Amino acid sequence: MAVEQKAPNRYHHGDLRRALLAAVDEIVQELGVEGLSLRECARRAGVSHGAPAHHFGDKRGMLTEYATDGFEKLLGSISVEFDKLDPADTKGKLKAVGKGYVAFALAHRAQFKVMFRSELLDNENERLMERGRQVFEILTKSLAGHWAATNQGWRKENLAQISLAWSAVHGFAVLAVEADLLRMGEEGLLNPDPDAVLDQLMLIAEPPR
Amino acid sequence: MAVEQKAPNRYHHGDLRRALLAAVDEIVQELGVEGLSLRECARRAGVSHGAPAHHFGDKRGMLTEYATDGFEKLLGSISVEFDKLDPADTKGKLKAVGKGYVAFALAHRAQFKVMFRSELLDNENERLMERGRQVFEILTKSLAGHWAATNQGWRKENLAQISLAWSAVHGFAVLAVEADLLRMGEEGLLNPDPDAVLDQLMLIAEPPR
DNA sequence: ACATAAATCCTGACAGTGTCAACGTGTCAA
DNA sequence: TTGACACGTTGACACTGTCAGGATTTATGT
Q: Whole domain around residue B19: which residue ranges?
């Protein structure tokens, strides 16, 4: 149950920061972010209730770190397939972004939810916002790359297409994660193969007819 | 500030249930759902801290009512344009669903967020789940109607297309609402005309080439 | 080596919270 | 009129985040 107990008889924990973030992840998985408390984190790390303040300032600061860590993992998840692909395979790269995005959301449901709960986070935090920008950039650049490769140039619809792609990928991830609420349509309409959905989405990146 | 004070010298409020839901909306707009408390609701309704329990049971019950009310408004928002259109205008109807969805999200940002926070709600609640199903149904039926009208029949991609449409509309609404976090790309990439985005989305409902 | 600064953690207190039981108060029907 | 019941109040409980002040360990500079 406990995450990383403090070594006995040691006034200083040694690695409290990491231990606390691990506790956050554990609790958020068990109880959701609503069930998260600084004091419970401290408890699981084997430390007094006031200790977390020295590392994160306050609760918002702790969640901000947790979310930032999530964005870094998200970037990693996208890169796994993305980096393997030939730069010439612009279409494959595009799809890899979507797959990596959805894969991360499903593998880290609880953390994914927290990452987009802006009311809970410090939106002035530089590192957090930078990571968010990076995710957005890898999508837009992949799209632009594919358009360039297929000699489509820049058309006025492209802006809307970028928004749509971003919306669809994020929306699909959100709906997949929030499956509790969305188990509507008992045919399992909303649990299709992510691959097939992404295939459909890819069509917006194709040249107009 | 206060929502609906209890009439003075009246032990019974008379319309406490509605007054409390109004207070919820007010507080959630001001502070977000994180800043919501049963006691503050009671305070704004001019009533003691224990009173809400008689109407909603507990906090989760109160939020469930609030979310259900939101789904009903969402259905209303979709219907506004939808019902005006000629049944033969299957494409127009389809687009009206998306427009109504996004319009509601933007008009009731705070409530919209709560509606999809399944951890906060009672997912066993019949009325809540029924409303959710209805929203999903109006989208799928509109899609199916358009496919029927354009003589496409039912193809195997249709399932993925429904998911994609649902994902895109919801994702766009979410991103529009959570704009704080997503004001990335200072060109305002994520604040495009919803109409243009929906136009792009409509392409998936067209016959294959 | 030693003093001093800094980082880290603890303790105790404070107001605020959700929930519950016990208790008033009004309403309505038998 | 009498009782049942819905509605609202009150007080208590354990829990929360935050803060000030103190304890302890580590790092730094001389």
A: 1-57
